[in-house]
């Protein structure tokens, strides 16, 4: 049972890491997009 629990926790951690990476990618994309918008406005 303990082994199964650690597997489950590991999967959850991996999913959380993927979520954080995806969020960071979206953040940097939005920041780059904001920069592009500012360039267009000027």
Verbal overview:
This protein has 42 residues and is mainly alpha-helical. Helices cover 95% and strands 0% of the residues. The protein has one helix and no strands. The protein is rod-shaped. The N and C termini lie far apart (62 Å).
Observed structural traits:
42 residues, mainly alpha, 95% helix, rod-shaped, single chain
User: What proportion of the residues form beta strands (DSSP E)?
Assistant: under 5%
Q: Judging from the principal axes of the Cα atoms, what is the shape? A: rod-shaped
Distance between the termini: 62 Å
**Helix/strand order, N-terminal first:** H
Oligomer: single chain
DSSP summary, beta strand count: 0
Write the layout of secondary structure elements.
Elements: H1 2-41
In a few lines, what is going on in this structure?
With 42 residues, this protein is mainly alpha-helical.
């Amino acid at each position: 049972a303990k082994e199964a629990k650690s597997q489950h926790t590991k999967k959850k951690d991996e999913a959380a890491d993927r979520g954080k990476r995806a969020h960071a990618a979206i953040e940097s994309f939005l920041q780059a997009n904001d920069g592009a918008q500012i360039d267009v406005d000027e």
